[in-house]
Amino acid sequence: MSLTLDAGCSSQQGKRRANEDSCLVITPSTGQYLDYGALFAVADGVGGMAGGKEASECAIRTLRDEYYAAPETLTLEHALRDCFDAANRAVLAEPPVGRATTLSALVLRNRRWAVGHVGDTRVWLYRNRQLTQVTTDHSRPYAHIGSMITRACGLDVQLNADVQSGELQEGDVFLITSDGVHETLDAQTMAAALAFDDRSAQKIAETLVLQALHAGSMDNVSACVARVNQLPPETVSDIGLSITALPIRPLPKTGDTVDGFVIGERLHSGRLSTLYAAVDNETGQQVALKFPNPRHADDAAFVSYFLREEWLGKRIDSPHVVKTITLPLGRRTALYSVMALHNGETLAARIKRKNGLSVYETLSLAQQILTGLDHLHRKGVIHRDVKPENILIDTGHQVRLLDLGVSRIERMDAGSQSLAPVGTPSYIAPEVMAGKEADERADVYSAAVAIYEMLTRKYPYGEIEPFTHPSYNHFVPPERYNPAVPPWLSEMLRKACAPDPSQRHPHAADFAAALAAPAQNILPQRKAPLLERIRPEHWKVLFIVSLLLNLLLLLFALLQ
């Protein structure tokens, strides 16, 4: 499924001697333009200068040729800036000397839009029944001669074009107008024309132009309309572009308001990020906000870290994984993640508080941990940092996995080079420490180490320090530290912590099932009826006693 649009354009001379406006509408469905998306533009030759028509046509032609010849590796913003610079050079280079033109361009590609702009033509966005002016006029009013253009193609050797971008929504309607339209029609009138869903984009453009002429416009009048009917499926690159565009700002303080979130107490500080409690003023919901550490703002890992959490937040819906909340388009003005807030404690805190956990509590929590991992694995996600610090137990005793920023996502990492081991060495699987890519069995290993720690407060191969070459030859049975650990559980952990990944359970669900079956022998069960509680070897004695009693009763009856 591709981006589906309805587009149209109209331009008329009006009361001017010539029409110096030029328009562009390209909505490719096949061929070389398809991967670049749709391109719309309106250029208006600057009045009072010779060659206004030639200037607007030159700018539109150069914009088109340069954009569809740009390297595919460029971002939309980069490509538009290069195109505007090329249009400026072209207008300056061709005669007549002294000509200039405004230029507003719109690109719609995949699930994103981008706008480039110089002059007083305008780009508008009609969304949710609201019309918003996207661009800002580059003009200066003068008392006796009216407004003068301060930025346009052909005015200066260096052109500083405004470029901005955002995410599309189905139903969006974009409008590009020359000043002959928007200086005659107010925003309310234009919004009313765009509100007709049953009208084609071409009809809306023609209606706006005719309305401007009938309202007395003394200038050329032009309008381009593009309606987004259907969006293609979201890709990783779409999210990456939206994340990359957000700035990294200084950490907030308690009491600050960020994009409508009132910042509360600091919950956690780490090398890469800081977590705060917050309240969403728009919904009243209590949330957690994760901000990147500004000291590492140049670290490329930030984009990857927050991209993964953003991508997963839109796809993972599990009661055992902390949910990342997707914000409405345009609300977030800085780089941070929003997550559901759950009161409770980490597994690490619980192990320390209780000085280790009972076998029963360990098995109960282990089932939830492995269920959460199974949900991730079924979505093609490897957690890669399973440890007690990244496992939350809320006040309802529900387990939730935290910190998916370093996860391996199949759709995002397919074909990429193996990443360096991440996480705490004592929990990292031996094959990952040796440089191999983490898979489901690596998460099974990490979970098994966490389960071992719940029971013993120790590690199966001892604590492993960073930058060392650990040995995995001697597995320490957990019952050595905790005699309450049954032999079957010890063997289960030995298997799950096997140095050879082929010897482990291949899936988290398999490990959970193996722990659940023998666990029935020690977990609390319903009290069985008396007949079920009698051992088989006792049935013979009871039968003899019953037979003798019956014989005595029979004899007593005969003697009466």
How would you portray this structure in words?
The protein is α+β, with helices and mostly antiparallel strands and 560 residues long. It folds into four domains: 4-233, Phosphatase 2c, domain 1; 238-340, Phosphorylase Kinase, domain 1, CATH 3.30.200; 345-519, Transferase(Phosphotransferase) domain 1 (Transferase(Phosphotransferase), domain 1, Orthogonal Bundle); 530-559. It is built from 16 helices and 22 strands. The chain has helices spanning 52-67, 76-93, 179-182, 187-194, 201-214, 236-244, 301-313, 347-354, 359-378, 410-413, 430-433, 440-456, 487-496, 508-519, 530-533, 539-559; strands at residues 4-12, 21-26, 38-45, 101-109, 112-118, 122-127, 130-133, 139-142, 146-149, 162-167, 173-177, 221-230, 257-258, 261-269, 273-280, 286-292, 337-340, 344-346, 381-382, 391-394, 399-401, 408-409. It has a five-stranded antiparallel beta sheet with strand order 1-12-11-6-7. Strands 2-3-4-5-10 form a five-stranded antiparallel beta sheet, covered by helices on one side. Strands 13-14-15-16-17 form a five-stranded antiparallel beta sheet. Strand 6 and strand 7 (130-133) form a beta hairpin. Helix 1 packs antiparallel against helix 2, helix 9 runs antiparallel to helix 12 and helix 9 runs antiparallel to helix 14 (508-519). The protein is elongated. Residues 520-537 have low confidence and may be disordered.
